[in-house]
Amino acid sequence: MINQQVNQLVQSFKVKIKHMRIVKSGVYRLKSTDGKQHCLKKMNYTLRRLRWMDQVLRRIRHQGFSNIAWRNPHEHSGRHLYARRPRGGTPYILTPWIKGRSPSPASQKDVKACAATLARFHLAGRKAVLPRAGALNMLRKWPSLLQAREALLKKQINKAKRNGHGSPMDRLLQVHGDSLLQRSQEALRILRRSNYKTACKMAANTGALCHGDSGPKNFVLTSSGTYMIDFETLRFDLRAYDLFRMIRLSCKNKGWKLSTARSVLDGYQSVSKLEHLDIELIKVWLQFPNKAFKLLSRYDRSKAEGKRKIERSLEKVMADERHIISFLHKLSQYVQKG
Fold first, then answer.
1. What is the DSSP letter of 103?
2. Each residue of 69-84: b (16+ CB within 10 Å) or e?
3. What residues contact residue 228 under an 8 Å CB cut-off, 6+ apart?
């Protein structure tokens, strides 16, 4: 059965639907009467930002990087960027559904394929003349952003220490708080010693397009190559940020194996050579306890059940990320040998 709202949205794209499947909230896999498969997706962004994404992705396709799940305005289903029902509501986009399989972080071959595709995406972004209006631009912003996040960590940890053995969160932070702050301080120390500002200046001139959420789940392996999907986080930033995301999302909850990070770096460098600064910045983002920050930033305004969920999540994060320090040490040794 086809949802009435979905049917109305799809009609705006001049497509007739034969079958619909809900993938998750706001995402639908559709099969049209002509046999083609599409993805209908809710986009909680301004039209200005959405138009920027569209302009950027069409321009990098023009540069020869076509392995993206995005509309083709020359095709019947891709003539319109978005549809809204009711008028003035949240926009939805219609993109091709890429048929293939999800990469396995446990497979070195899969990870290398994703990293090589990411490098090609970055190179296409450098070649294209990309618009600035509507963009999310993270260049030069990370020092102040990480400092603010560290300040919140300090506030929550100091409060927990004053509270004695109060809530489960207080007890968690009394045990793990110092190690979280050691990680944040080390991350900021590496960042201060790096040539981050110079790198941002160069990237602003040469091109700095990033996917923003480049974990394995946002790639699809097909018989015709590796495709990238889900561009909501598209931004201007240093390429090291995308590599950090790929390493983190491939390694977390899987023991933080050096072989996985090595596959990311080797796969990327099979296409585009990395610099020492890239590795240093990857280490900054891996070192900083960002997941703990995100959980703690929501804690005080959450209700009782929400707080219990955050406490359980933080406990799992601390158990998983206890491997990060030794992982970073091994990563540094590997890079020095290379």
1. P
2. bbbeeeeebbeebbbe
3. 67, 68, 69, 117, 118, 121, 211, 218, 219
Nearest of 53, 43, 103, 46 to residue 211 by alpha carbon: 53
What tens digit of pLDDT does each residue of 43-84 get? 999 999 999 999 999 999 999 999 999 999 999 899 999 999
> How would you classify residue 97: left for phi > 0, otherwise alpha for psi between -120 and 50, otherwise beta?
beta
Q: Residue 226 and residue 338: Cα distance in Å, rounded?
A: 27
Contact 250, 257 (CB under 8 A): no
Contact 69, 19 (CB under 8 A): no
The DSSP 8-state label assigned to residue 85 in this structure reads S
Please give the structure tokens belonging to residue 297. 């930033």
Domains of the chain: 4-96 (3.30.200.20), 108-337 (3.90.1200.10)
Question: Coil, strand, or helix at residue 201?
Answer: helix
pLDDT digits (tens, 9 = 90+) for 261-273: 999 999 999 999 9
Quickly tell me which residue has 């986080």 as its tokens: 233
Q: Which residue has the tokens 């990870």?
A: 111
The string of pLDDT tens digits covering residues 20-48 is 999 999 999 999 999 999 999 999 999 99
**Rounded CA separation 30/15 (Å):** 10
